[in-house]
Specification:
Layout (H helix, E strand, L loop, with lengths): L3 H21 L9 E8 L5 E8 L10 H23 L6 E6 L2 H26 L15 H21 L3
Parallel strand pairs: 2-3
Antiparallel strand pairs: 1-2
Helix pairs in contact: 1-2
Main location: cytoplasm
Keywords: Cytoplasm, Ribosome biogenesis
Family: Belongs to the RbfA family.
Length: about 170
């Protein structure tokens, strides 16, 4: 078994090697907008999982995940050979490609935040000009009760001072 620090270092290196090979050496046009986002390597250094995302041609176009997946599957052997040449370990790890869900999750979170903002704006709109349901200060005492409460505390203070030895 290897330590986790070595596995993390090799995972980063494998991710860089695969990304460079996709960008410069693999001539498949379906891989033009593929980005390697993360790489995980098992502790025994036998299996590497590479997470990727696909960008659309422009902001309005949907990304071609199916084409990118097929292109990565067809280039898996070449990419594994490149990794084996450059990392210098006894056993070259198998490569597994997984579509990264982070962009879709981020989009969903943005939509939820926009909905929450709209709901807050609606509450703020309804709150303008609204009056409290009861007394504005429910803890306020009547002025007559205030005077009696002050008199009682003054009497208690006076008795406390008289009882204290000097």
């Amino acid at each position: 078994m290897t330590d986790n620090a070595r596995a993390r270092r090799l995972a980063k290196r494998i991710g860089r090697i695969v990304a460079a090979a996709i960008e410069h050496e693999i001539k498949d046009p379906r891989l033009g907008n593929v980005t390697i986002t993360d790489t995980k390597l098992t502790g025994d250094l036998r299996d590497a999982t590479l997470y990727y995302t696909v960008l659309g041609e422009n902001l309005d176009a949907d990304p071609d995940f199916a084409g990118a997946e097929a292109a990565l599957e067809s280039a898996r052997g070449v990419l594994r050979s490149k990794v084996g040449e450059q990392i210098g370990v006894r056993f070259t790890p198998t490569l597994t490609f997984v579509a990264d869900s982070i962009p879709a999750d981020a989009r969903r979170i943005d939509e939820l935040l926009a909905q929450a903002k709209e709901a807050d704006a609606e509450v703020a709109r309804r709150a303008t000009g609204a009056e409290p349901a009861g007394d504005p200060d429910p803890y306020r005492l009547d002025p007559a009760e205030d005077e009696t409460a002050e008199d009682e505390t003054a009497e208690v203070d006076a008795t406390d001072e008289a009882e204290e030895p000097r």
